[in-house]
Amino acid sequence: MDKKCNKVEEVIQVINSTHNTKYRFVERFGRGEWGAYRIAETGKKPVVLKFFLNLSNTNIVDADPILSKKINNRLLSLDYPVPKYIYTGSLNKEGLYWVQEELPGKPLWENPTLEQVKKILSLLELQKNHAVSPKQNWSDFVKDTIFGHKTEKKTTLKNHSKETNNFLESIMLLIQGLEDLPLPTTDIVHGDFSYHNTMIKDGKITGIIDWQEAGCGDWLIDLARLIYSLHDRPKLTAPIIKKLKKQDIRRIKLYTVFTVLEMISWPIKFNPQNIENAFNKAKSAVDFVFVKKCRY
């Protein structure tokens, strides 16, 4: 077990003590940056545990342990397939945990189909105008990351290499004048919306997972992340490009730069072997949005 796996037993003890449960550790799921754990009570269906020991390396700015539960309940009321949260809470005032139902199937890590992309897009549109709280404001977070005081991601690119610093300077030039662009705050924003967080069984989508960092903002933040993950597969992006024709491309540009900062700074800090691939993907996405203007 790695260091984080060793901590899971302590987190389970906190949950059992707080909620009068008798969960035990079963196994760790094999994919995902932060890790998820299957836990179970004797004679009952297993559930999924996710936790952050602290929030310093997350995008959570409002540490409200029940916010994601409220968001998921709103989505469930819209027939949006998401895992139902059973328990949520704080860990020593520095972390958070979530116990949730396990959706059937497995994550869609590779080779999504056109029909699956269309379904994902239809689910994403359900997030419009359904924000449940002004907390965890993604529109503000995006602007603060690009133009404001949340400089960590930009600093990571600036200090990593001459190449990443030059790239940072070039993308900042591309969004000059967008500092005061009004951004909506009325939608639900997932924060890491890609096909990787889609669960499938027998080729059918069973749900969207990983809502720990969800909040309010502009649903186009999630759409831009979906474009980022699929822009290099023209056959799959056709329905997304059609949807884009009715959207404000300035916001897509802003959210693309934010996504680039996310996707390059993460491997620099936590996954060095993937830096080159991440950097190439980022350059390709910038070319697609800013040069090709989301057209093939």
Report on the structure:
The protein has 296 residues and is an alpha+beta fold. The chain has 2 domains: 99 residues, 2-Layer Sandwich (Phosphorylase Kinase, domain 1), CATH 3.30.200; 186 residues, Aminoglycoside phosphotransferase (APH), C-terminal lobe (Aminoglycoside 3'-phosphotransferase, Chain: A, domain 2, Alpha-Beta Complex). It contains 10 helices and 10 strands. A 5-stranded antiparallel beta sheet has the order 1-2-3-5-4, sandwiched between helices. α4 packs across α9. The longest helix is centred in the last third of the chain and has 22 residues. The model has no long low-confidence stretch (mean pLDDT 94).
Indicate the topology:
Elements: H1 3-19, E1 24-28, E2 37-40, E3 47-52, H2 67-77, E4 85-91, E5 95-101, E6 106-107, H3 114-125, H4 138-146, H5 152-160, H6 162-174, E7 187-189, E8 198-201, E9 204-208, E10 215-217, H7 220-230, H8 234-244, H9 249-270, H10 275-291
Helix pairs in contact: 3-8, 4-9, 5-6, 5-9, 6-10, 7-9, 9-10
Keywords:
Aminoglycoside 3'-phosphotransferase, Chain: A, domain 2; 296 residues; 10 strands; single chain; Phosphorylase Kinase, domain 1; 2 domains; 45% helix; alpha+beta; five-stranded antiparallel sheet; three-stranded antiparallel sheet
Radius of gyration: 19 Å
Profile the largest sheet: 5 strands, antiparallel
Overall pLDDT, averaged? Answer: 94
- What's the SSE pattern? HEEEHEEEHHHHEEEEHHHH
Q: What is the third-level CATH name, the topology of the largest domain?
A: Aminoglycoside 3'-phosphotransferase, Chain: A, domain 2
Count the domains.
Answer: 2
Helix content: 40-55%
